[in-house]
Amino acid sequence: MDIRLADRMQGRNPSAIREILKQNADISFSAGNPSAETFPAAELAALAAELFENEYAQALQYGITEGYVPLRELTANRMREKHGIGGLDDDILITSGGQQGLDLAAKCLTNEGDTILCETPSFVGALNCFRSYRLRLVGIPMDEAGMDLDQLEQALRREPNVRFIYTIPTFQNPTGITTSLERRKKLLELARKYNVILLEDSPYFELRYDGEPVPALKCLDTTGHVLFVGSYSKLISPGMRIGYVIGHKDLLTKMVVAKQGQDVHTNLFFQILTARYLAQYDLDAHIQKCVQLYRARRDRMIAALERHLDPRVSFTRPDGGIFIWGQLPEGKSGTELAKHAIKRSLAIVPGAPFATDEADNPGFRLNFSVPDLAQIDRGVAILGDAIQEYIGSVETS
Amino acid sequence: MDIRLADRMQGRNPSAIREILKQNADISFSAGNPSAETFPAAELAALAAELFENEYAQALQYGITEGYVPLRELTANRMREKHGIGGLDDDILITSGGQQGLDLAAKCLTNEGDTILCETPSFVGALNCFRSYRLRLVGIPMDEAGMDLDQLEQALRREPNVRFIYTIPTFQNPTGITTSLERRKKLLELARKYNVILLEDSPYFELRYDGEPVPALKCLDTTGHVLFVGSYSKLISPGMRIGYVIGHKDLLTKMVVAKQGQDVHTNLFFQILTARYLAQYDLDAHIQKCVQLYRARRDRMIAALERHLDPRVSFTRPDGGIFIWGQLPEGKSGTELAKHAIKRSLAIVPGAPFATDEADNPGFRLNFSVPDLAQIDRGVAILGDAIQEYIGSVETS
Fold first, then answer.
1. What is the spatial distance between Cα B227 and Cα B105, in angstroms, rounded to a whole number?
2. Using a CB-CB distance cutoff of 8 angstroms, which residues of chain A are in contact with residue B53?
3. What was the pLDDT predicted at A40?
4. Which one of A195, A217, B150, B362 is separated from A293 by 20 to 30 angstroms, measured CA to CA?
């Protein structure tokens, strides 16, 4: 038959990153994964054995859409007490990864043709999700302290039907940039002034290697303008797909209805497992182990980049998260560089998929959470060679 | 703040069934659950222990959106070899329960305002999902052999932009009705003639207690018009949320993109667990145990209904599945009956949420997979009393 596809799916193709991940490479800086070394497998195994023994009748049965109540409570309490996230008018919904939180937000807050403002570059999984709702994406450039707020306010004035501002304020994907406290306060002022939601996507914020924590936008929110999307993917395990959203209860009621239609509820066995892990083990101590592992890898990658990269290539020095963003000289192509790198069996992700217009650009993303120290050294040396091959020898230095 | 909701979520409220399930009742005929007695917990526990020991680095990590390859292969092979489902142009995608298959089908095949034809009454979770895409639902009445195909063809001629026909052809939810082979063939002819997709939702078809299996629509499909939605929820465990779709590869490519945006992939640990279960245990033997348990419960419920129900109330006698559908005399209300029943601590689901127009009607749904034999006896006796209380003593008999 001749299949008539929905207009919203015309031209939508598989994510460029996922296609690159399918390529074989000896060394990969292309992932967005946590290191498998950080998975608390022994603890989860013990809890799972107990669940299968004593509570399988509940854990393998249907659950309620809102999520397993103890997991909602433990998560909400931890976020409120430790990070000041969540107020009296807020509720919490367990989602199938942070990704589902983004999808449900788009589903419940936008109509086709509405406008979303976001950082550019930004997380490709979010951008593709928003595109599938036929939203107009308007990218706001960043500097080392976050979005340019003058350009953001101009866009808020200029663009029709702006429904939310999508931001990853802490250790942004793909740049590693953290929005400063001053800009966060100003962001909230703008959200209030123009009555738009701030969709705060924050899967990395607890992975801080240097400096003082910056309060979440949701922590500063007194008027219900912030919808916080969190995740256990980078702290416990991404394969289990456990995320959550914290936001105004009126909005969450609708997100529950939307989630019912999408997947009824999130895998209940792993919801219970996560709740038991939070209750019986020390997540904060576990996070500190992740921090030590990743800090060493970040330090090693930055040292190697300083050693091997052509001085015309710049890169960010993030205080946390799992990504570093590189920039070739103006006019050069991240996509061409990725091709030179993969020829040498090194996988990196070019900047194009992270751009709101998907246009080729001089950016590229490096992940440091997956490769070990030796792979980081070898991979960055290869990257240095690939860059030399692509942009040629230094003209002025 | 004043939250501006998406038009698609205006008036969308939590599912009536889920709200009823939250009520306390001594006996519940309101569930759509399999019996926890059927969960192969010991087998899953052994497989999980092995996975945590030897393969946690993969099982807890991100996976690919299409699904765990051995699960896709084992499922596709089983469905093709045992049930003749799936051809050369077809592919398989693992989904987060059958529900996500329905959602992705609506997302990839329809534009806002398009029309969907479906049985009425039909599965409330599907209807609500389709409503959230702003689709027009046109219900086609059924008799004991399935949809009235004259009315279906009239609707295909009359209604604008019909994108698919949604059907649960075997042991339908909520009626238990199985579409006859003759009507299945005619359904396919109509799908070809009017070039619309048949969305075949079939979570119950392997739970047959009497009679000969009727081939799936997908089994009869030679032209790529059928998208088959399957699930392990009623055969292994619903809490794990593992379903699948089998359909034309061009359509599935788009469904993969849509799924990337929704939840990246389905819980990988349980995808692997399900694959290992299929490879190392005998699912068909397990299904036969489920069949024996449920057959006894169905027989007991039908016998009790014959004993206790006012003769003016009719009910279906399904050959499988987990539901029986009752009908009060014309003009009476399933919702009123459900209120009389819950006063006596018996939960049933009224017909209104299953109707495409959500209007009150004389129908009500009874589940027999969850209550045990004693609960069935007591519950049906209570139902008989509630009916007498509501519709009064027999006038003619």
1. 8
2. 45
3. 98
4. A217
Q: B218: closest CA among B87, B66, B106, B94?
A: B87
A387 touches chain B (CB under 8 A): no
Residues 291-350 of B with CB under 8 A from A: none
A109 interfacial to chain B (CB closer than 8 Å): yes
For every residue of B169-201, which 3-state class applies, written as one string? CCCCCCCCCCCCHHHHHHHHHHHHHCCCEEEEE
Provide the chain A residues 236-255 that lie in CB contact (below 8 A) with chain B.
237-241, 248, 250-251, 253-254
Residue of B125, B195, B263 lying closest to A261 (CB–CB): B125
Please indicate whether, in this complex, the C-beta atoms of A266 and B241 are within 8 angstroms of each other.
yes
- Give the residue among B113, B237, B198, B254 at the shortest CA–CA distance from A265: B237
A5 vs B108: CB contact, 8 Å cut-off? yes
The answer to whether A136 and A115 are in contact (CB under 8 A) is yes
Residue B62, chain A, CB below 8 Å: the answer is yes
For residue A137, the cross-strand partners are: A116
Cα–chain center distance at A60: 29
**Residue stretches of chain A with pLDDT short of 50:** 396-397
Classify the C-alpha dihedral B43-B48-B53-B58 as positive or negative. Answer: positive
Strands B146-147 and B162-167: unpaired
What are the Cα distances from residue A249, in Å, to A86, A215, A246, B15, B188? 11, 22, 9, 17, 45
Contact assignment for A195 to B14 by CB distance below 8 Å: no
> If we measure between CA atoms, which residue out of B233, B122, B238 comes closest to residue B173?
B122
pLDDT confidence of residue B259: 98
The type of residue at B238 is P
Using the Cβ of B374 and the Cβ atoms of chain A, whether some distance falls under 8 Å is answered with: no
Residue A195 CB neighbour total at 10 angstroms: 14
Shortest Cα distance from A242 to chain B (angstroms)? 9
**Tokens matching residue B201:** 């939702």
- Both structure tokens of B27: 């006996």
CA A47 – CA A45 distance, rounded (Å): 5
Please tell me the distance in Å from B308's CA to the nearest CA on chain A: 31
Which one-letter amino acid corresponds to residue A125?
Answer: G
The one-letter amino acid at B387: I
Does residue A268 belong to the interface with chain B, where contact is any CB pair within 8 Å? yes
The string of pLDDT tens digits covering residues B221-261 is 999 999 999 999 999 999 999 999 999 999 999 999 999 99
Which stretches of chain B score pLDDT less than 50?
A: 396-397
Between CA A224 and CA A219 the distance in angstroms is 11
> What is each CA distance from A51 to A94, A276, B203, in whole angstroms?
20, 10, 26
The whole-model pTM stands at 0.97
Residues of chain A with pLDDT > 70: what percent? 96
CB–CB of B96/A259 below 8 Å? no
Secondary structure, 3-state, chain B? CCCCCCHHHCCCCCCHHHHHHHCCCCEECCCCCCCHHHCCHHHHHHHHHHHHHHCHHHHCCCCCCCCCHHHHHHHHHHHHHHHCCCCCCEEEEEECHHHHHHHHHHHHHCCCCCEEEEECCCCHHHHHHHHCCCCEEEEECEECCEECHHHHHHHHHHCCCEEEEEECCCCCCCCCCCCCHHHHHHHHHHHHHCCCEEEEECCCCCCECCCCCCCCHHHHCCCCCEEEEEECCCCCCCCCCCEEEEEEHHHHHHHHHHHHHHHCCCCHHHHHHHHHHHHHCCHHHHHHHHHHHHHHHHHHHHHHHHHHCCCCCEECCCCECCEEEEECCCCCCHHHHHHHHHHCCEECEECHHHCCCCCCCCEEEEECCCCCHHHHHHHHHHHHHHHHHHHCCCCCC
pLDDT computed for residue B17 by the predictor:
60
- Would you call B2 exposed, middle or buried from its count of C-beta atoms within 10 A (0-12, 13-18, 19+)? exposed
